[in-house]
Amino acid sequence: MTEEDGVPREPRSDTHADDARALTFGSGGRGGAGHEGSAVPRTDFRSYYGRPVLKPPVWEWKVPAYLFAGGLSAGGALLAAGADVTGRPELRRWCRLGGFGALLASSYFLIADLGRPERFHHMLRVAKPSSPMSVGTWILMAYSPGISLAATAELLPATLRSSLPGRLLHKAARPAGMSSAAMAPALAAYTAVLLSQTAVPAWHEARQELPFVFTGSAAASGGGLGMLVAPVDEAGPARRLGAVGAAVELVAARLIDRRPGLVPKAYTTGRAHRLRQASECLTLGGALAAVTVARRSRAAAVAAGLSLLAGSALQRFGTFEAGVASTKDPAYVVVPQRERLNAAAGERHAH
Q1: Gap between the Cα atoms of 66 and 62, Å rounded
Q2: 230: left (phi over 0), alpha (psi -120 to 50) or beta
Q3: CA angle, corner 49, sides to 47 and 51, nearest 5?
Q4: How many CA atoms lie within 13 A of 153 on its CB side?
Q5: pLDDT for the residue 138
Q6: In this structure, is the dihedral angle defined by the CA atoms of residues 29, 31, 33 and 36, taken in order, positive or negative?
């Protein structure tokens, strides 16, 4: 304890607590209009026994990896369907295979994080529209057969393509690819809804922007995949998808940073800030290269594709870290609650 003007003071805890005090009690100081506020003890927002108000997520790195791989699969499937319609066989082939590979990786990360594989099976036993987890499970199940069948058609050996099963599989590949492309936007966005429906402050408060961040990130990674695997003369749709997705992702991420209140600090400080800064640089660089030098140079297209893929992955890891950080500081929970209570009290007095 320290003493100032004869008034006991609590020691300063951290910058979040300072901001929280300003938001909760005002910024009045000695000699000003808010002089009476100086008699209020400083608040350090500690909880009982020094524990956080919220329990931090127990998820590991597999969860942001699952978020990235699912978005990549969705972006690849969407691009593959467009390539199929417009007669770009190399882009179609490699995006189908890349989308299917990303789906396998995403499923592995999800099941591995659940700890027991049968838990995923149990989620298929019910369909609950009010549960983002249940809805997401069924979106994944509706998406998976199409991209799986389309990728299988690409892997079919040449000796079997002329057989009756081979011809049937080839004919079914296009409608199967279209079905997965139709589900791709939902697959890219539902994970953002899933996160924002938790009690984690950084995710819940950004519920309006996160679907745009994740959908844009999925499109950017799909475009990056297309530029990485397809020849330059077929990669035009990939370049455009990557640039548009990057723009949506970057704008939505900046809107999160500019939200009023304390929660944006979780995204703009610490490890989350460093990851998101690196993501922004890579995504912006990849998008600029996609619309300029990648149109003429295969090496530049590969570099731009890798940059977009890395930026998309870091965006998911940065968002994950921001959520974890917001559960460890009680100010992220206490301040918004008091703001809502004050607003409700103000409305009652106004009436």
Answers
A1: 6
A2: beta
A3: 55
A4: 24
A5: 81
A6: positive
Q: Model confidence over 132-169: pLDDT tens digits?
A: 666 777 888 899 999 999 999 999 888 888 888 888 99
Which residue stretches of 26-88 are H helix?
62-85
| Contact between residue 158 and residue 166 where contact means Cβ atoms under 8 Å apart | no
CA 35 centroid distance within chain: 44
What long-range pairs does 158-161 form, CB within 8 A, spacing at least 24? none
- The tokens describing 225, both together, are 């995949």
Cross-strand bridge partners of residue 137: none
Residue 246 to residue 248: CA distance in whole angstroms: 5
Q: Which residue has the tokens 């108000």?
A: 53
Tally DSSP H helices, then E strands, for the chain: 14, 2
Q: Where are the alpha helices (DSSP H) in 86-163?
A: 89-114, 118-123, 132-155, 158-161
- First-to-last C-alpha distance (Å) of the chain: 42
State how far the Cα of 307 lies from the Cα of 317, in Å rounded to an integer.
15
Q: Rounded distance, CA 327 to CA 276, Å?
A: 19
Please give the model's pTM, rounded to 2 decimal places.
Answer: 0.78
How would residue 128 be classed by pLDDT, with cut points 50, 70 and 90? Answer: low
